[in-house]
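Researcher: Going back to the complex we discussed earlier. I've cleaned up the inputs and rechecked each line, so this should be the final set. Can you rerun the prediction on the complete assembly and write out the structure?
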Amino acid sequence: MAGLIEKDMRLLLRRKNTFVLFLALAVALGLTQKGTFILGYLPFLGMILTISTITYDEIDNGYRFLMTLPVDAKTYVKEKYLFCISGTFISWILAVVLYFISGQIRGEKIAIIDEIPIVASFLPAVILFMVIMIPIQLKFGAEKSRIVLFIIFGIITAISFLFVRVIGTEIINQIIVKINHMDETGIMLSGILFAILAAVLSYLISCKIMQNKEL
Amino acid sequence: MILLNNVIKNYEDFQLNISMEIPNGRISGLVGKNGAGKSTTIKLILGLIKPDSGNVSVFGTESSKLNSKEKEQIGVSLAESGFSSQLAISDIECILAKMYSNFDKEYFRKMCQELMLPKDKIIREFSTGMKAKLRVLVAMTHKAKLLIMDEPTAGLDVEARNEILDILRNYVAEDDDRTILITSHISSDLEGLCDDIYLIHEGKIVIHEDTDVILEQYGILKVNDAQYGNIDKSYILKSQKEPYGYACFTNEKKYYQENYPDIVIENGGIDELILMMTGGYR
Amino acid sequence: MYLKTYRCFYICKNKQRITVDNSYIVLYTVYYKGVKNMHIILNKSSMIPIYEQLMDQIKSGIIQSVLKEGEALPSVRMLAGELRISALTVKKAYDKLEEEGFVTTVHGKGTFVTATDKQLAMEARKKAVEDDFAKVIEKAKAVGLNREEILEIVRIILEDGL
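Model: Rerun complete. Updated structure for the full complex:
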């Protein structure tokens, strides 16, 4: 697995220019825009960049060659998740730091304790998105997965619509009120829990996908 | 070392059905037309695909179940896939070092210099020859006992081909236990390297013969019509009408040399064998 | 091993790298691990099987004492690599040489030249001459000479010689 990590790191480092550009953009926006923008943008960026290593493996049958090295499907998936989650996590930490710094610069009064739930909920959100994207990319490849994602979001939107129609706005309002009453920490913790469960499920699905991939 | 036992693999328009046994210390060649089943065989041996029936094993272990330690003993060069073309040799050196416990950094560096491979250019900017040399080199830098080379010299000029073949020869000279399985279209490459040849055609092994037998005992008789009428045809495998008379393919060259000393007899190589056995010669 | 490898590369392969003069080459080609370079030249387009050509040249080497008693022949793979032929061919040659008593193979150590039996050497030399005779007679026949004419030629040459 160390070899795979080395490979993915070096692939990203080769794209230093894109990296730096986006980072600069992020910092600029983060400092000028309202604070929480950067909390979402940077981790999201980190996720996109780390997942892009899957595309590199896909090009020119790279994955096939990787499987002839002392590596198997499971190790490959394990490394990908480790790499992507770590990368996203690091970008999130960076985002948090920038958030607090920009807050200081603007002279806003920030009580760190109060900010924790807000700050902390961005990470699970991005991770959730990521663990949905990874198996889709692994199964369908970079190009097709864009279409698949589109379709999935379309379906989710359609279902939500129907859901609202069927259940009626009354009940939805009640649910929303209930959620608002729940305390923030509770939301944050349940968000984190949900993300972890989703990640585990996604990992298992990805393993299955890669083990059955026809090479 | 490599064992394929009644292996069957079904595809839409093609079926592979073969048995092969390659012992330690052997250099075997696998030849055949495009689509005959060479790549499929390689993929089965490496555990990239599973047979529909029969079993494939390497080092006594079923190919799809090879663990990391066993895979470290195998060096692979595939025709159409390799490291990402966005990487450079300096990257690959570090990656290989972390992948293989027996990676020989000194040897890798030395060979990169000898083969004149640029250290800091990314692979995408390499010429075809450089890419091929790198692929072969990557397979040989971790003291693997088994090398699997799929068309290592395809698309290369004569000089590059010979460079690669020499590297392979030196590799097996270092350790008698090392084995190579190589697929190729280029018969002359195989004739100077392989101990034995498997000819695969439409998913089946049509011939398995030692190289020196092919070179020694197979030949082409070039005769005019009169001579053709006179000669004993019991050892003629196939004949073809030519402007000067007939070209006759035989696997008993000596018989004709001894009994018909005035007949022109050419040596028959792997190319002739392929053409003859796959119906190229009619 | 590297020494031999480099030698192959420098002398056999990249022509532009040979900037050495003849004396250097002679010095360089002589001994490595006690195995003398055997200067074997094969004709791959010949009708004579390669293993036979190899056997003949090794035998000559032994008879002419270029290869000395007890000396080691190169390993099968090494020689096969240098000559660019299959290892099985080299093995066949070595095996047949062993059958004829010219060399002995010690498992795990290599193949060595056996004590030259004068009788054996003489036989081999005689056989070689017989083969040459056979070739010349073929040629003579091809040109159109008959049995009498051929024998006449031999007689004349012998008388002249003496």
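Model: Worth noting: Strands of chain C lie at 31-32, 35-36, 103-106, 110-113.
Researcher: Good, that matches what I expected from the previous run.
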